[in-house]
Design a protein that fits this description.
This protein is mostly helical. It folds into two domains: 7-76, no CATH class; 88-148, no CATH class. It has helices at residues 32-38, 42-47, 61-76, 105-110, 122-134, and strands spanning 7-9, 24-26. Strands 1-2 form a two-stranded antiparallel ribbon. The longest helix is centred in the middle third of the chain and has 16 residues, at 61-76. The radius of gyration is 23 Å and the shape is extended.
Length: 148
């Protein structure tokens, strides 16, 4: 039995005449109020493998009941604990004063330097550009200059 997924209300959109197309949908995570109603903290919930959406303010009774039932099943041994759902941490190396740097997040993303393993490497950039040339894609040199 996997960790439960929360149920949230669907936003009402103008294209549906102000009515949602369906009443409920699966959410990104449980709200902080729902986690507290069960008697857990956010960090404890994440260590138990429960996804937490800190931006969501609503608290639904269905989600609280679902969490309580799942925690009882875990205590009785009927459900196994999934991996912890801790937030990702990006570590950015310090600037070494070299010429080629993607200084902003947009620049790093455009140059393909956001992957953790190959960040700040020229060889990755050159190999990537060569691959794009072979596939006849528009690579970084042709960007923002018009043409193909």
């Amino acid at each position: 039995m996997a960790s439960p997924s929360p149920v949230v209300k669907v936003p009402s959109l103008g294209r549906f005449g102000g009515l949602p197309p369906k009443p409920l949908k699966a959410g990104r995570g449980f709200s902080v109020d729902e986690i507290k109603a069960v008697g857990l903290t956010v960090s404890e919930a994440r260590l138990l493998g429960i996804y937490v959406d800190e931006r969501r303010k609503s608290a639904h009774e269905e989600n609280v009941k679902m969490l309580q039932e799942w925690l009882k099943a875990v205590k009785l041994g009927e459900a196994s604990l999934p991996q912890p759902t801790l937030p990702k941490v990006l570590v950015i190396k310090p600037d070494r004063g070299r010429v080629f740097k993607g200084k902003t997040m947009a620049g790093r993303k455009a140059r393909g330097l956001l992957s953790v393993k190959y960040r700040y490497t020229h060889s990755y950039k050159w190999a990537r550009k060569q691959r794009e040339r072979a596939l006849r894609k528009r690579h970084e040199a042709a960007r923002h200059k018009g043409g193909h």
